[in-house]
Amino acid sequence: MKAIIVLIVVVIVGLLAFNYFTTGEFTLMSSGSGGGETQELNQLRGEFRSLAREFRQAGRSAAMGGLDTTAAASAVLSELDGVEEKVLAIAKNAEDPEVQEEAKALAAEIAKFKKDIR
Description:
Elements: H1 2-23, H2 36-65, H3 70-93, H4 97-117
Helix pairs in contact: 2-3, 2-4, 3-4
């Protein structure tokens, strides 16, 4: 009985984590009813978080092992520029004002990250 409860808890935590990293929200079920712009924005938010994590990992590798991670960092920054362009396009062209605000907030977060690392 305890094993079943533990299994259920692990599955729920895994589902929450998956939805958080893919949509940026803590929900058990991702809402598929959102428009294409919302889904694309959530995907871009996930990409940004992943790229930020990769950049920090490259910095830690360089600091700890003395490795040259310039190429990895440059690749992450160029991908980050592409994500930022897409977010700005959504902010400019989105019909839903809420999506525009979310896109502007994400663009500001990306700009702050880029400023902090340079």
